[in-house]
Write a structure and sequence with these properties.
Layout: H1 10-21, E1 23-25, E2 28-30, H2 36-39, H3 42-47, H4 54-67, H5 74-97, H6 105-119, H7 126-137
Helix pairs in contact: 6-7
Length: about 140
Amino acid sequence: LTTSFLPDDLPILHYFESTWVGLSVAGQWMDPMFPLVMWNVYNRYAQGSSKTTNALEAFHHSFNSLLSCQHPSIWKLLESLEKQQTHTAATINDIQRGTSFTHSAREKKRNERIQKLVSEYTLPQADRLLRGVVYNDM
């Protein structure tokens, strides 16, 4: 991979390796700052599990819209928490009843394309997998 980078871009590669992947320094392997198991979603894709924190991001967006301001009073905060709790209880009831939640058609197609890339992945084709995932996330 290093040969694919221009000399001016090598600090970016070093940052990426030392932070996310790990690197070899003088024949000694250095673990990354954030272990692969913490951030890598390859196994989740391979197993068809959840891939992102979109649910958490959706929650934050929804809750922020309930607040309707950046610095709510304590009363506004409590009122919003109560509304959120009511919504959460209804969602739990839906799940317990077996109501299924579906992704949009666009999200389903994107996940299918990435699932196909992951299922066909072999180590010599790492660049193909990375390009495919990047193009599907755009």
